[in-house]
Design a protein that fits this description.
mainly beta, 6 strands
Length: 68
């Protein structure tokens, strides 16, 4: 997973959609240490369940099918 630090304590995270396999990205806000939300894939429009855990030097992210 690639992390590109951006302004305002955010980073862009890349991952493969578990439905269509396309590489997509989301912008993660580092001010919230644990996040869980649903976001549609920007390619196939299916809902993804996204979970992020952020600590001082890393971002762990998992994207799964929301119907799992």
């Amino acid at each position: 997973m690639s992390v590109t630090r951006a302004m305002f304590n955010q980073s862009e995270q890349h991952f493969e959609c578990p439905y269509c396999g396309e590489r997509i990205s989301v912008l993660v806000d580092h001010s919230v240490p644990h996040q869980r939300y649903i976001e549609d894939c920007e390619v196939c429009c299916r809902p993804l369940s996204i979970e992020c855990t952020i600590d001082s030097d890393s971002v762990e992210m998992q994207a799964t099918r929301s119907d799992d």
